[in-house]
Amino acid sequence: MPNSFCADAVTVSVYIKNRLPTRALVEKTPFEAWHGSKPDLSNFRIFGSLAYAWTSPSLRKKLDDHAKKAVMIGYTDT
């Protein structure tokens, strides 16, 4: 990955770290302490891995691909 994605890599590491247990909070993660519920870990992906971005039907023609290749560089806030 180019150095221009360094900030994205830090953001992903903080995202993951906030969803892992810590000694400061007994039997809780920082996410759980803040939101009151356990975090969903099913969406974890490897930073820089191959991803596919879905293309809306209104933006493609009949024989165009339904998705485009992309690189996973972060998670959405929502």
Automatic annotation (TrEMBL):
<keyword id="KW-0479">Metal-binding</keyword>
<dbReference type="GO" id="GO:0016787">
    <property type="term" value="F:hydrolase activity"/>
</dbReference>
<keyword id="KW-0460">Magnesium</keyword>
<protein>
    <submittedName>
        <fullName>Copia protein</fullName>
    </submittedName>
</protein>
<dbReference type="GO" id="GO:0046872">
    <property type="term" value="F:metal ion binding"/>
</dbReference>
<dbReference type="GO" id="GO:0003887">
    <property type="term" value="F:DNA-directed DNA polymerase activity"/>
</dbReference>
<dbReference type="GO" id="GO:0004519">
    <property type="term" value="F:endonuclease activity"/>
</dbReference>
<keyword id="KW-0695">RNA-directed DNA polymerase</keyword>
<keyword id="KW-0548">Nucleotidyltransferase</keyword>
<keyword id="KW-0229">DNA integration</keyword>
<keyword id="KW-0233">DNA recombination</keyword>
<keyword id="KW-0540">Nuclease</keyword>
<keyword id="KW-0238">DNA-binding</keyword>
<dbReference type="InterPro" id="IPR039537">
    <property type="entry name" value="Retrotran_Ty1/copia-like"/>
</dbReference>
<keyword id="KW-0239">DNA-directed DNA polymerase</keyword>
<dbReference type="GO" id="GO:0015074">
    <property type="term" value="P:DNA integration"/>
</dbReference>
<keyword id="KW-0378">Hydrolase</keyword>
<keyword id="KW-0808">Transferase</keyword>
<dbReference type="GO" id="GO:0003677">
    <property type="term" value="F:DNA binding"/>
</dbReference>
<dbReference type="GO" id="GO:0006310">
    <property type="term" value="P:DNA recombination"/>
</dbReference>
<keyword id="KW-0255">Endonuclease</keyword>
<dbReference type="GO" id="GO:0003964">
    <property type="term" value="F:RNA-directed DNA polymerase activity"/>
</dbReference>
